[in-house]
Amino acid sequence: MGSSTSVVTAHSATRSAVPGPPFRRVFVTGATGFIGRRVSRELLARGVEVHASVHRTLPPSTSQIRWHELDLSYEDGVRTVMDRVRPDVLLHLAWNVDTDYETSGDNDRWVQWSLHLAREFIRAGGRHMLVAGSCAEYEWSSPVLCEESRCVPVTRYGIAKLSLSRQVRSFTKVGVKVAWPRLFFLFGEGERDQRLIPHLIRDVRDERMIDWVLPEIRRDYLHVGEAARAIVHLIDRGYDGVINVGSGQAPALEEIAATIAEALGKAAPAITRVGQLSCPTLEIRADISRLRRLGWSPLRTVADALTDLARESVPER
User: Fold this and answer.
1) pLDDT (0 to 100) of residue 261
2) Burial class (CB in 10 A: 0-12, 13-18, 19+), 76
Protein backbone atom coordinates (compact mmCIF):
# COMPACT_ATOMS: atom_id res chain seq x y z
CA MET A 1 0.00 0.00 0.00
CA GLY A 2 1.05 3.60 -0.44
CA SER A 3 2.24 5.91 2.29
CA SER A 4 0.85 9.19 3.55
CA THR A 5 4.06 11.14 4.06
CA SER A 6 3.60 14.87 3.57
CA VAL A 7 5.80 16.40 0.89
CA VAL A 8 5.59 20.18 1.21
CA THR A 9 7.05 22.12 -1.69
CA ALA A 10 5.98 25.64 -0.68
CA HIS A 11 4.56 27.38 2.36
CA SER A 12 2.22 29.93 0.87
CA ALA A 13 0.44 30.94 -2.29
CA THR A 14 1.06 34.31 -3.86
CA ARG A 15 -2.02 36.51 -3.58
CA SER A 16 -3.33 38.31 -6.62
CA ALA A 17 -5.91 40.99 -7.16
CA VAL A 18 -8.62 38.33 -7.46
CA PRO A 19 -11.05 38.61 -4.51
CA GLY A 20 -10.51 35.93 -1.91
CA PRO A 21 -13.07 33.12 -1.65
CA PRO A 22 -14.99 32.24 1.55
CA PHE A 23 -12.58 29.42 2.43
CA ARG A 24 -8.86 29.21 2.97
CA ARG A 25 -7.66 25.61 2.67
CA VAL A 26 -8.55 23.17 -0.12
CA PHE A 27 -7.50 19.57 -0.67
CA VAL A 28 -7.40 18.45 -4.30
CA THR A 29 -7.14 14.92 -5.65
CA GLY A 30 -6.01 14.56 -9.26
CA ALA A 31 -4.08 17.84 -9.06
CA THR A 32 -1.48 16.63 -11.59
CA GLY A 33 -4.19 15.65 -14.08
CA PHE A 34 -5.89 17.23 -17.06
CA ILE A 35 -8.48 19.15 -15.03
CA GLY A 36 -6.84 19.21 -11.62
CA ARG A 37 -3.73 21.13 -12.52
CA ARG A 38 -5.83 23.94 -13.98
CA VAL A 39 -8.19 24.00 -11.00
CA SER A 40 -5.18 24.22 -8.69
CA ARG A 41 -3.81 27.21 -10.60
CA GLU A 42 -7.17 28.95 -10.35
CA LEU A 43 -7.21 28.40 -6.58
CA LEU A 44 -3.64 29.61 -6.10
CA ALA A 45 -4.46 32.77 -8.05
CA ARG A 46 -7.14 33.47 -5.43
CA GLY A 47 -4.67 33.13 -2.58
CA VAL A 48 -6.03 29.77 -1.41
CA GLU A 49 -3.82 27.34 0.48
CA VAL A 50 -3.85 24.29 -1.82
CA HIS A 51 -3.00 20.82 -0.58
CA ALA A 52 -3.04 17.87 -2.97
CA SER A 53 -2.47 14.14 -3.15
CA VAL A 54 0.25 12.71 -5.36
CA HIS A 55 0.89 9.05 -6.11
CA ARG A 56 3.28 7.55 -8.68
CA THR A 57 3.69 10.98 -10.28
CA LEU A 58 6.34 13.56 -9.45
CA PRO A 59 4.77 16.97 -8.80
CA PRO A 60 6.30 20.09 -10.37
CA SER A 61 9.27 21.19 -8.29
CA THR A 62 8.26 24.86 -8.57
CA SER A 63 4.64 24.34 -7.57
CA GLN A 64 3.14 26.35 -4.72
CA ILE A 65 0.92 23.39 -3.88
CA ARG A 66 1.56 21.50 -0.65
CA TRP A 67 1.85 17.93 -1.86
CA HIS A 68 1.04 14.82 0.18
CA GLU A 69 2.14 11.37 -0.98
CA LEU A 70 -1.09 9.41 -0.78
CA ASP A 71 -2.53 6.23 -2.26
CA LEU A 72 -6.30 6.70 -2.03
CA SER A 73 -6.76 2.94 -1.64
CA TYR A 74 -4.82 3.11 1.64
CA GLU A 75 -7.54 3.88 4.19
CA ASP A 76 -5.27 4.70 7.13
CA GLY A 77 -3.27 7.04 4.92
CA VAL A 78 -6.39 8.93 3.88
CA ARG A 79 -7.38 9.39 7.53
CA THR A 80 -3.90 10.58 8.48
CA VAL A 81 -3.78 13.19 5.71
CA MET A 82 -7.29 14.50 6.37
CA ASP A 83 -6.47 14.85 10.08
CA ARG A 84 -3.24 16.65 9.26
CA VAL A 85 -4.64 19.07 6.68
CA ARG A 86 -8.23 19.57 7.93
CA PRO A 87 -9.31 21.25 4.68
CA ASP A 88 -12.34 23.50 4.42
CA VAL A 89 -13.08 22.16 0.92
CA LEU A 90 -12.41 18.85 -0.81
CA LEU A 91 -12.15 18.77 -4.59
CA HIS A 92 -12.15 15.14 -5.68
CA LEU A 93 -11.08 15.10 -9.33
CA ALA A 94 -9.02 11.91 -9.41
CA TRP A 95 -10.30 8.78 -11.18
CA ASN A 96 -9.10 6.02 -13.48
CA VAL A 97 -7.72 7.76 -16.59
CA ASP A 98 -6.57 4.71 -18.54
CA THR A 99 -7.82 4.27 -22.10
CA ASP A 100 -10.28 1.61 -20.92
CA TYR A 101 -11.83 3.87 -18.28
CA GLU A 102 -15.37 3.35 -19.62
CA THR A 103 -15.28 -0.42 -19.09
CA SER A 104 -12.62 -0.96 -16.43
CA GLY A 105 -13.40 -2.84 -13.23
CA ASP A 106 -11.36 -0.16 -11.47
CA ASN A 107 -14.49 2.02 -11.58
CA ASP A 108 -16.03 -0.05 -8.78
CA ARG A 109 -12.89 0.31 -6.67
CA TRP A 110 -12.85 4.07 -7.24
CA VAL A 111 -16.37 4.30 -5.85
CA GLN A 112 -15.26 2.67 -2.59
CA TRP A 113 -12.05 4.73 -2.32
CA SER A 114 -14.01 7.92 -2.99
CA LEU A 115 -16.65 7.11 -0.37
CA HIS A 116 -13.94 6.54 2.22
CA LEU A 117 -12.26 9.82 1.27
CA ALA A 118 -15.57 11.70 1.63
CA ARG A 119 -16.26 10.16 5.03
CA GLU A 120 -12.79 11.01 6.33
CA PHE A 121 -13.07 14.57 5.02
CA ILE A 122 -16.36 15.05 6.90
CA ARG A 123 -15.01 13.37 10.03
CA ALA A 124 -12.07 15.81 9.97
CA GLY A 125 -14.48 18.74 9.97
CA GLY A 126 -14.91 19.41 6.24
CA ARG A 127 -18.20 20.96 5.19
CA HIS A 128 -18.08 21.44 1.41
CA MET A 129 -16.94 18.92 -1.17
CA LEU A 130 -17.02 18.91 -4.94
CA VAL A 131 -16.75 15.62 -6.82
CA ALA A 132 -16.35 15.47 -10.60
CA GLY A 133 -19.34 13.79 -12.20
CA SER A 134 -19.98 13.09 -15.87
CA CYS A 135 -22.58 13.44 -18.59
CA ALA A 136 -22.13 9.65 -18.91
CA GLU A 137 -24.52 9.38 -15.96
CA TYR A 138 -27.45 10.45 -18.16
CA GLU A 139 -29.57 8.41 -20.51
CA TRP A 140 -28.57 9.74 -23.93
CA SER A 141 -32.07 9.58 -25.39
CA SER A 142 -32.50 13.34 -25.76
CA PRO A 143 -30.19 15.78 -27.57
CA VAL A 144 -30.38 18.35 -24.74
CA LEU A 145 -29.69 17.20 -21.19
CA CYS A 146 -30.65 19.17 -18.09
CA GLU A 147 -30.01 18.26 -14.47
CA GLU A 148 -33.48 16.67 -14.21
CA SER A 149 -32.93 14.45 -17.26
CA ARG A 150 -33.22 10.72 -16.69
CA CYS A 151 -30.07 8.96 -15.49
CA VAL A 152 -29.63 5.52 -17.06
CA PRO A 153 -25.89 5.15 -17.71
CA VAL A 154 -24.74 2.43 -20.09
CA THR A 155 -21.00 2.35 -19.35
CA ARG A 156 -19.33 1.02 -16.24
CA TYR A 157 -17.82 4.47 -15.75
CA GLY A 158 -21.20 6.23 -15.88
CA ILE A 159 -22.76 3.64 -13.56
CA ALA A 160 -19.94 4.13 -11.04
CA LYS A 161 -20.19 7.92 -11.09
CA LEU A 162 -23.96 7.87 -10.61
CA SER A 163 -23.66 5.33 -7.78
CA LEU A 164 -21.04 7.46 -6.03
CA SER A 165 -23.20 10.57 -6.35
CA ARG A 166 -26.19 8.90 -4.74
CA GLN A 167 -24.18 7.27 -1.96
CA VAL A 168 -22.28 10.42 -1.02
CA ARG A 169 -25.49 12.40 -0.75
CA SER A 170 -27.11 9.64 1.30
CA PHE A 171 -24.61 9.83 4.16
CA THR A 172 -23.75 13.52 4.23
CA LYS A 173 -25.30 15.26 7.19
CA VAL A 174 -26.95 18.62 7.65
CA GLY A 175 -24.44 21.39 7.07
CA VAL A 176 -22.34 19.45 4.53
CA LYS A 177 -22.61 20.58 0.92
CA VAL A 178 -21.86 18.31 -2.04
CA ALA A 179 -21.40 19.94 -5.45
CA TRP A 180 -21.65 17.44 -8.29
CA PRO A 181 -20.69 19.01 -11.64
CA ARG A 182 -21.55 16.73 -14.54
CA LEU A 183 -18.75 17.47 -16.96
CA PHE A 184 -19.47 17.15 -20.66
CA PHE A 185 -16.79 16.73 -23.37
CA LEU A 186 -13.57 18.51 -22.41
CA PHE A 187 -10.61 19.26 -24.66
CA GLY A 188 -7.41 21.25 -24.37
CA GLU A 189 -3.67 21.27 -24.08
CA GLY A 190 -2.25 18.08 -22.58
CA GLU A 191 -5.14 15.86 -23.65
CA ARG A 192 -4.24 12.28 -24.54
CA ASP A 193 -3.22 11.92 -28.19
CA GLN A 194 -5.81 9.24 -28.93
CA ARG A 195 -8.74 11.44 -27.91
CA LEU A 196 -10.99 12.84 -30.62
CA ILE A 197 -9.91 16.50 -30.77
CA PRO A 198 -6.13 15.83 -30.82
CA HIS A 199 -6.74 13.10 -33.41
CA LEU A 200 -8.70 15.49 -35.61
CA ILE A 201 -6.05 18.20 -35.29
CA ARG A 202 -3.27 15.82 -36.34
CA ASP A 203 -5.21 14.48 -39.33
CA VAL A 204 -6.19 17.95 -40.55
CA ARG A 205 -2.68 19.31 -40.02
CA ASP A 206 -1.08 16.40 -41.87
CA GLU A 207 -3.82 16.32 -44.53
CA ARG A 208 -4.71 12.72 -43.82
CA MET A 209 -7.98 11.03 -44.71
CA ILE A 210 -10.55 11.24 -41.93
CA ASP A 211 -12.55 8.04 -42.12
CA TRP A 212 -13.00 7.08 -38.50
CA VAL A 213 -15.82 9.34 -37.33
CA LEU A 214 -19.32 10.36 -38.39
CA PRO A 215 -19.27 14.00 -39.60
CA GLU A 216 -22.77 14.79 -38.30
CA ILE A 217 -22.13 13.77 -34.68
CA ARG A 218 -22.68 16.76 -32.36
CA ARG A 219 -21.15 16.94 -28.91
CA ASP A 220 -20.99 19.62 -26.24
CA TYR A 221 -17.28 20.43 -26.12
CA LEU A 222 -15.76 22.81 -23.57
CA HIS A 223 -12.14 23.84 -23.14
CA VAL A 224 -10.73 22.32 -19.96
CA GLY A 225 -9.61 25.73 -18.72
CA GLU A 226 -13.21 26.94 -18.82
CA ALA A 227 -14.29 23.83 -16.89
CA ALA A 228 -11.66 24.58 -14.24
CA ARG A 229 -13.03 28.12 -13.90
CA ALA A 230 -16.55 26.71 -13.53
CA ILE A 231 -15.45 24.29 -10.80
CA VAL A 232 -13.81 27.03 -8.76
CA HIS A 233 -16.86 29.25 -9.33
CA LEU A 234 -19.08 26.54 -7.85
CA ILE A 235 -17.09 26.30 -4.63
CA ASP A 236 -16.82 30.10 -4.47
CA ARG A 237 -20.62 30.18 -4.49
CA GLY A 238 -20.96 27.34 -1.99
CA TYR A 239 -23.01 25.38 -4.50
CA ASP A 240 -24.82 22.25 -3.32
CA GLY A 241 -26.27 19.75 -5.80
CA VAL A 242 -25.96 18.48 -9.36
CA ILE A 243 -25.07 20.93 -12.11
CA ASN A 244 -24.10 20.63 -15.77
CA VAL A 245 -20.72 21.99 -16.87
CA GLY A 246 -20.47 22.40 -20.63
CA SER A 247 -20.53 25.07 -23.30
CA GLY A 248 -24.20 24.79 -24.17
CA GLN A 249 -23.11 24.38 -27.80
CA ALA A 250 -22.93 21.18 -29.86
CA PRO A 251 -21.10 21.76 -33.15
CA ALA A 252 -21.01 18.89 -35.64
CA LEU A 253 -17.63 17.19 -35.96
CA GLU A 254 -17.40 18.36 -39.56
CA GLU A 255 -17.76 21.93 -38.24
CA ILE A 256 -15.02 21.32 -35.69
CA ALA A 257 -12.76 19.94 -38.42
CA ALA A 258 -13.48 23.00 -40.58
CA THR A 259 -12.59 25.34 -37.69
CA ILE A 260 -9.31 23.48 -37.19
CA ALA A 261 -8.55 23.62 -40.91
CA GLU A 262 -9.17 27.37 -41.05
CA ALA A 263 -6.86 27.91 -38.07
CA LEU A 264 -4.11 25.93 -39.81
CA GLY A 265 -4.62 27.51 -43.23
CA LYS A 266 -5.77 24.21 -44.70
CA ALA A 267 -8.67 23.34 -46.95
CA ALA A 268 -11.73 22.06 -45.10
CA PRO A 269 -11.27 18.29 -44.89
CA ALA A 270 -13.70 15.78 -46.29
CA ILE A 271 -14.78 13.28 -43.67
CA THR A 272 -15.24 10.04 -45.57
CA ARG A 273 -17.14 7.13 -44.13
CA VAL A 274 -15.34 3.85 -44.54
CA GLY A 275 -17.02 0.71 -43.28
CA GLN A 276 -20.05 0.69 -41.01
CA LEU A 277 -19.88 3.33 -38.31
CA SER A 278 -22.84 3.75 -36.02
CA CYS A 279 -23.81 6.12 -33.26
CA PRO A 280 -27.08 5.74 -31.35
CA THR A 281 -27.24 9.41 -30.33
CA LEU A 282 -26.09 12.01 -32.83
CA GLU A 283 -26.39 15.05 -30.55
CA ILE A 284 -25.47 15.50 -26.88
CA ARG A 285 -25.67 19.03 -25.53
CA ALA A 286 -25.77 20.42 -22.00
CA ASP A 287 -28.47 22.73 -20.76
CA ILE A 288 -26.25 25.08 -18.74
CA SER A 289 -28.93 27.56 -17.70
CA ARG A 290 -28.41 26.64 -14.03
CA LEU A 291 -24.67 27.35 -14.29
CA ARG A 292 -25.33 30.65 -16.06
CA ARG A 293 -27.76 31.72 -13.35
CA LEU A 294 -24.89 31.37 -10.89
CA GLY A 295 -23.01 34.03 -12.86
CA TRP A 296 -20.60 31.84 -14.84
CA SER A 297 -19.93 32.26 -18.54
CA PRO A 298 -16.96 31.09 -20.66
CA LEU A 299 -14.20 33.54 -21.50
CA ARG A 300 -13.69 31.98 -24.95
CA THR A 301 -16.03 30.39 -27.44
CA VAL A 302 -15.46 26.77 -28.41
CA ALA A 303 -14.35 27.91 -31.87
CA ASP A 304 -11.79 30.33 -30.42
CA ALA A 305 -10.39 27.69 -28.07
CA LEU A 306 -10.16 25.17 -30.92
CA THR A 307 -8.40 27.76 -33.10
CA ASP A 308 -5.79 28.48 -30.42
CA LEU A 309 -5.25 24.78 -29.74
CA ALA A 310 -4.82 23.93 -33.43
CA ARG A 311 -2.28 26.72 -33.96
CA GLU A 312 -0.29 25.64 -30.92
CA SER A 313 -0.05 22.12 -32.39
CA VAL A 314 2.11 23.28 -35.31
CA PRO A 315 5.75 22.34 -34.63
CA GLU A 316 8.17 25.25 -34.51
CA ARG A 317 10.54 25.36 -37.47
Assistant:
1) 97
2) exposed
